[in-house]
């Protein structure tokens, strides 16, 4: 018995890793060699590998929209670590992105 949403779960983790890589690049302050930059590159690479691996478990139509969760993860990480403002409009955008991902992910059933 296999988990039916394995591809979606893996793709979600890949989106989180990509957003974490973006945050670490921002904290590194550019392309200067540093711990943040190196770990950011590692997160991006791991995210890319997981994205390719996730396609083994689902359809492109179902899995590709899950990557848009990266926008949500980036917004949350920016709010937590960079004190960026999360306005009501951004919360509405989060709701719309989640709705779209859920509707398109339903195709995977």
Topology as a string of helices (H) and strands (E): HHHHH
Low-confidence spans: pLDDT under 50, at least 5 residues? none
Radius of gyration over C-alpha positions, nearest whole angstrom:
15 Å
Would you tell me the structural class of the helices and strands? Answer: mainly alpha
Mean pLDDT: 89
Write structural notes for this entry.
With 109 residues, the protein is mainly alpha-helical. It has one domain (6-108). Helix content is 72%, strand content 0%. The chain is built from 5 helices and no strands. The chain is flat. The model has no long low-confidence stretch (mean pLDDT 89).
Key words describing this protein structure:
single chain; 109 residues; mainly alpha; flat
Topology record:
Elements: H1 6-28, H2 35-54, H3 60-63, H4 69-81, H5 88-105
Condensed summary:
This protein is 72% helix and 0% strand. It is an all-alpha fold. It has one domain.
